[in-house]
Specification:
It holds the Pfam family Glyoxalase. The protein is of the alpha+beta class. It has helices at 16-26, 78-88, 166-177, 225-237, 289-292; strands at 3-13, 29-33, 37-41, 47-52, 67-75, 95-99, 102-108, 114-119, 155-162, 180-185, 189-193, 198-199, 203-206, 214-221, 242-248, 255-260, 266-271, 275-276, 283-284, 295-296.
Amino acid sequence: MSVLGIDQITYGVQDLATCQRFMLDWGLALSSEAEDHIVLSSLNGCKVVLAKADKPDLPPAIEEGSTLREVVWGVDNEADLEVIAARIQGDPGFVDQRVEGQRRIGCTDPNGMAVRFQVTQKKPIEVACAAMNTWQAQPRVNTPSPIYERAQPIEVGHVVFFVADVKKVEAFYTERFGFVSSDRYPERGAFMRCAENGGHHDLFLLQLPNGKRGLNHVAFTVRDIHEVFGGGMHISRCGWETQLGPGRHPVSSAYFWYFKNPAGALIEYYADEDQLTGDWEPRNFEPGPTVFAEWAIDGGLDGNTRRQKDASGPKGQFLTEKN
């Protein structure tokens, strides 16, 4: 039994219209719309639900304000659901329900987050991605790298939470669902992937000294580094605010760009993370600025000038022109 990744996330939000506008700018497609919630989809069918925070059937929030209320993970088949159900049926908040005809089981994790599982509804897709020419190998011949005017996220790649007890939550996801730890900040953080073979992390747990619980960010996978840049500059042109980026994480090797999200906390475009197998040995890192980012642009890039925020735009036809 192995978990395949995130199938759906649900936000409880205070301003549904603003959050809808943001997610459409972000590159998600509108799937359905109702008075108290909307459903959007990524390229492979991963769903993002925006619901009014007072919608009666939403799971309880782990923090005040707009935030994530539920994470639904996908599995391969009904037999996998039965295995998980047997493991969690005695846990707080256990549910075995039908949602729009789809069986969904779940419980509440030790941090208070509603976690659910269903047979995956995502579909396999093929997308054109940039090939990187290096000194050793040059797979891109007679073909320029792409330039993206905006992003179309492929899926929700990972979620990151502030947790009160990182060891307890890490053990819960390992024992109940077979998650695997990729790397750690000892006593402070755990990067976890949902199967032995896969991207560096699908879930990151971060313990702060004050024991705060809440959402840190939700990350969306895009094709390549060029889409990180193109998507980020489009969001900048739309008037949304960068938190940090673009930049590159040393721990996962991924390129990133974080924005402030009206639906709660932060939201990230990322690409080119490390791919791991069961042979990988988890590493320990001491938290610090250079561990979080090998390099990063504070304030982001201006999507119109194509320069760092507040820098003057280009003048003349060539960079080397002098007035």
